[in-house]
Design goal:
Chain lengths: 79, 79
């Protein structure tokens, strides 16, 4: 199973993307951890190291997929 | 089943996103049509009407999910 993390910050665009991730990904192949960077602030560094520039974003193994644009990671860091 | 279309233009970022769409979406729930706007130019208008600003992008029902950024739709139109 691929290691996957979905990072968001609770924004409306984040919530919308999360619905798709939860609804349509094949749970037999991928079951992403959901991380709210607004509340789990100790994960911001992980997100940054993974190459995330904005949220929402889905990381699958080493690959980052930014899905639409809710907020920059800088905004999340400063918020 | 949700109606879904994955629009791309053959760019490296498009191909990478297409792999995720083909590999990880639950085919029992969603089975997107794959449209290459570089070759299927008669579909560009559909993409524009759907609200697509760049490729790669996945449309599920009426919702557009831009996945990373390969090229703007304007570039695709002018290419």
């Amino acid at each position: 199973m691929a290691r996957a993390v979905f990072y968001h910050a609770g924004c409306p665009i984040c919530v919308d993307a999360e619905q798709v991730v939860l609804e349509y990904l094949d749970k037999a192949k991928i079951n992403p951890e959901i991380v709210h960077l607004g509340t789990e602030r100790n994960r911001i560094e992980d997100a940054e190291k993974a190459g995330i520039k904005s949220v929402p974003a889905l990381v699958i193994d080493q690959n980052v997929y930014h899905i639409n644009y809710g907020a920059s990671l800088e905004d999340v860091k400063n918020g």
